[in-house]
């Protein structure tokens, strides 16, 4: 890869909630990049997003955008099932990619991506596990790395969304939401997740019919830690993500979100973010800037295709545990040398 002094030309694939927000971010927040193409199977949506950006072309096919001369790099923000085809096309053009989570929805397709990248011989993909770029999670990782708290023994996570979007299923609580705790566990502890157990209380009366919400998910890791995740996507009151790591000599906790506390009329309190775009705005900004900076230096950083594959395998174990009950072991292939294996 060569160093690029000029602004990186980025194609954004998928111009829905995340893609349109990334277009705005690159144009208004990120330095060193500009959006040169957008792609959406919905041609009108692509055109209306492209119209907001000078010199940006609109496409309905990722391949035509990636073939354009002013496209140096790609952000994939289409739905998960479309990621594999877009990633493989990006590899054909040897383009760097920031791929929103999931890398792909199943471990078999994720492994095909890992294998294709391995054949290229160099990393091209950063996966959009943005919590690694959140200021609080970064502090948590830093404090664990000092060793002052001792060895991590347990992690307690709470992941709450105000309401699930239309069309959600019980499996999506694992595949779309708990996927972040899977990545955070592997990243914070440096362990692989070896088994998953999903417990299911009587669903909330506010959950859409047929959806098992909330769920209580347990991970076991190869470093001997136990991790629990409460996932509750129709909690009603807001968007809340919290993590507490219990170590041998102390604990560290993030996500209380008490940026400002008011005292008035005999009460104290603060506000709760309403969605991930609000809660993690700084993390998305830092993630995209880190990707642009690394790409312009000719490097690839952040969560890798291997991380995307490992998380997909944990998701599969979680969905099996949800469906059949009990503890399900996670099966991973050997880690290729490209990813430090
Ligand atoms: N990191 C996070 O916190 C986070 C948050 C939300 C969503 N996501 C991920 O971002 C991705 C997009 O999610 P979203 O909420 O923006 O979805 P969305 O439904 O709002 O937008 C998806 C867009 O992609 C388009 N599309 C569908 N198939 C396509 C294809 N083959 N090629 C090009 N465009 C296609 C759709 O027409 C739509 O405009 C998903 O992978 C999702 O899991 C990540
Ligand atoms: O796709 C979203 C996104 O990944 C959010 O970060 C998560 O909190 C939501 O639960 C999920 O639906």
TrEMBL record:
Coiled-coil residue windows: none
Catalysed transformations (reactions): myo-inositol + NAD(+) = scyllo-inosose + NADH + H(+)
Top-rank taxon: Bacteria
Enzyme class: oxidoreductase
Domain Gfo/Idh/MocA-like oxidoreductase C-terminal: 141-330
SUPFAM superfamilies: Glyceraldehyde-3-phosphate dehydrogenase-like, C-terminal domain, NAD(P)-binding Rossmann-fold domains
UniProt keyword list: NAD, Oxidoreductase
Gene Ontology biological process terms from the UniProt entry: inositol catabolic process
Residues covered by the Gfo/Idh/MocA-like oxidoreductase N-terminal domain: 9-129
Known partners and oligomeric status: Homotetramer.
Name of the protein in its database record: Inositol 2-dehydrogenase
């Amino acid at each position: 890869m060569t160093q690029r002094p000029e602004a990186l030309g980025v194609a954004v694939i998928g111009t829905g909630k995340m893609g349109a927000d990334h277009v705005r971010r690159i144009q208004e927040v990120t330095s060193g990049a500009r959006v040169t193409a957008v792609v959406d199977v919905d041609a009108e949506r692509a055109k209306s997003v492209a119209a907001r950006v000078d010199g940006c072309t609109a496409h309905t096919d990722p391949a035509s955008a990636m073939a354009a001369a002013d496209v140096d790099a790609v952000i994939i923000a289409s739905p998960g099932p479309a990621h594999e085809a877009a990633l493989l096309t990006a590899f054909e053009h040897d383009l760097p990619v920031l791929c929103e989570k999931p890398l792909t929805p199943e471990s078999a397709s994720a492994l095909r991506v890992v294998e294709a990248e391995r054949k290229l011989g160099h990393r091209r993909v950063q996966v959009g596990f943005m919590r690694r770029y959140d200021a609080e999670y970064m502090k948590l990782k830093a404090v664990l790395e000092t060793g002052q708290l001792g060895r991590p023994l347990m992690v307690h996570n709470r992941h709450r969304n105000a309401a699930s979007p239309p069309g959600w299923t019980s499996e999506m609580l694992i595949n779309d939401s708990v996927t972040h705790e899977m990545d955070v566990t592997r990243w914070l502890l440096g362990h692989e997740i070896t088994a998953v157990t999903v417990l299911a209380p009587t669903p909330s009366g506010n959950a859409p019919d047929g959806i098992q919400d909330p769920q209580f998910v347990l991970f076991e890791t190869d470093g001997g830690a136990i991790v629990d995740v409460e996932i509750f996507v129709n909690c009603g009151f807001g968007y809340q993500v919290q993590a507490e790591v219990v170590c041998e000599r102390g604990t560290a906790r993030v996500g209380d979100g008490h940026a400002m506390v008011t005292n008035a009329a005999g009460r104290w309190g603060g506000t709760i973010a309403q969605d991930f775009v609000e809660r993690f705005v700084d993390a998305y900004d830092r993630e995209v800037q880190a990707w642009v900076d690394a790409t312009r230096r000719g490097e690839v950083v952040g969560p890798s295709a291997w991380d995307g594959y490992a998380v997909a395998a944990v998701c599969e174990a979680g969905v099996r545990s949800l469906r059949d009950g009990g503890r399900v072991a996670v099966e991973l292939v050997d880690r290729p040398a490209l990813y430090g294996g």
